[in-house]
Design brief:
Helix content: 25-40%
Number of helices: 15
Distance between the termini: 58 Å
Strand order of the largest sheet: 3-4-6-7-16-12-19-10-8-9
Largest sheet: 10 strands, mixed
Oligomer: single chain
Shape: globular
Structural class: alpha+beta
Length: 463
């Protein structure tokens, strides 16, 4: 088609704005390249700025902070003791544990780029402790730690018991796929399940946990997860058969961090069988949540709803290759085999799990959510009367509900309300109690003796 008269006119009168005419359509000029935001920085400044933005946004940087070797150290006590290589990262514990938790980009592109860069990361294969530069442990890798203090025949017997428990659970209860809205999984669950099913293998994840359901913080009290309420008999048997692992991990945490273990253990037994029901794993247990990942690769994320100073544990079963734990912020990866344990502060460390390249991997992740460990305040704890008539008969279930009732209605509803009823927020004593409770919730130094002083964080969400 020949160019129109209008197009010819535009071409002849505005040559700079319109470069050429093709098939009667006018092509717009290409946009000028964006200005380099780091143009005024020197080379060192540019690198620091890129790394800072990377750690905040979760985008891999060209330069990643490296591990420094710092000799060896004996960690733990008695049978739960290991000679660990010491590695140090450029991080201050005060910033990590006391500062805000910055989330990462949870996209397929970010995960792929992290995996590509991780090919060049140093691989930890022997018992290691990774510390901040001021000496606080961030991660322990305990080679064959699940079998600590056991004879060879006991190791074989219990290892087979856990493997049989996992197989039996999968045979009777197909693993749920990761939700399609969950950005931490690299692929959509249904598609990946089909790929594994074509190989005759399972894929997915179970959550057997005591927590507050997604989006229900301040609305409903903690309860056992939905996965725990299906096939109750099979789940109960599985929890009993793997309880020995939980005991071993609890002993390791006690040997490595007695103060934090005491808090976790005390809270676990405050809940007891009454709350945990068939998820209860015995006297020595300390974590109220267990995830079973079946051949699952996981994208970069932080478990920001866990307590910052709590320990998350992982241990795996199966004959597999791949599945390394990658810590992109500090540029290293941990190669796990059957029987190895990783203990980490998963709330503050960006982490991800690499693809399984051969065989099958069944990974146990044990954790405790912050709003379970340091329970939100309820009306009886604070001894603050709620002005709502219904709550005088049946107290508010959580801090959020009480706070909303104290604040009273808004807009036109407030105009119609009796303002004398909603006066309690103006009480200095009430404000002081509310501030103390919220501070206790957010403070990582709260010990078990303070676990009944509850916390609340606005808008908290479980993941």
């Amino acid at each position: 088609m020949a160019p129109s008269k209008i197009a010819k006119f535009v071409q002849s009168t505005l040559p700079e704005a319109f470069r050429k005419i093709t098939k009667g359509r006018v092509e717009k000029p290409k946009a000028a390249p964006p200005t380099n935001t780091f143009s005024k920085l020197d080379d060192a400044g540019k690198e620091r700025a890129v790394v800072a933005e990377t750690l905040a946004a979760g985008t891999p940087a060209a330069s990643t902070p490296s591990l420094e070797e710092s000799g060896e150290e004996i960690v733990g006590l008695g049978s739960y003791q290991a000679v660990c290589q010491v590695r140090t990262v450029e991080a201050e514990s005060s910033i990590l544990f006391e500062g805000p938790v910055k989330q990462v980009k949870k996209t397929t592109e970010a995960a792929d780029e992290h995996r590509r860069r991780a090919l060049d990361y140093p691989v930890i294969k022997e018992s290691t402790v990774v510390k901040t530069k001021d000496g606080r442990p961030l991660l322990y890798f305990l080679k064959k730690g699940i079998f600590a203090g056991m004879a060879a025949d006991e190791q074989q017997q219990l290892g087979q018991q856990s493997m049989d428990a996992v197989r039996r659970l999968i045979d009777n209860y197909t693993p749920p796929p990761p939700p399609t809205e969950d950005p931490r999984a690299k692929e959509k669950g249904a598609q990946k399940m089909k790929e594994w099913a074509d190989k005759g293998m399972a894929y997915g994840r179970y959550y057997f946990a005591y927590w507050i359901a997604l989006g229900q913080s301040g609305v409903k009290p903690p309860t056992i997860s939905g996965d725990s309420k299906i096939h109750v008999e099979e789940v109960s048997t599985y929890m009993q058969d793997t309880a020995w692992e939980h005991s071993q991990i609890s002993r390791w945490i006690s040997a490595l961090d007695p103060e934090r273990h005491q808090e976790l253990h005390t809270r676990y037994h405050e809940l007891g069988e009454d709350e945990l029901q068939h998820l209860y794993q015995g006297e020595e247990a300390c974590h109220s949540g267990l995830a079973l990942l079946v051949n699952l690769a996981v994208g970069p994320h932080k478990d920001s709803n866990d307590a910052k100073d709590s320990w998350t544990s992982t241990n795996s079963w199966g004959d597999f290759k791949g599945g390394d734990l990658i810590i992109p912020d500090y540029g290293f990866r941990v190669a796990q085999e059957e029987g190895d344990i990783v203990l980490s502060h998963a709330a503050i460390l960006t982490h991800m799990v690499d693809e399984i390249t051969d065989g099958e991997r069944f990974c146990h992740v044990r954790f405790t959510k912050k709003n379970v460990l340091r329970t939100p305040a309820i009306q009886e704890d604070l001894q603050i009367p709620c002005p709502m008539a219904g709550c005088r008969r049946k107290p508010c279930r959580s801090w959020d509900i009480l706070k909303k009732h104290l604040r009273g209605p808004s807009g036109k509803a407030r105009e119609r309300a009796n303002t004398k009823t909603y006066h309690l927020l103006d009480s200095a004593e009430t404000r002081e109690k509310m501030d103390e409770a919220k501070a206790a919730y957010n403070s990582p130094s709260v010990g078990p003796q303070d676990s009944s002083v509850p916390p609340m964080q606005d808008g908290a969400r479980e993941v």
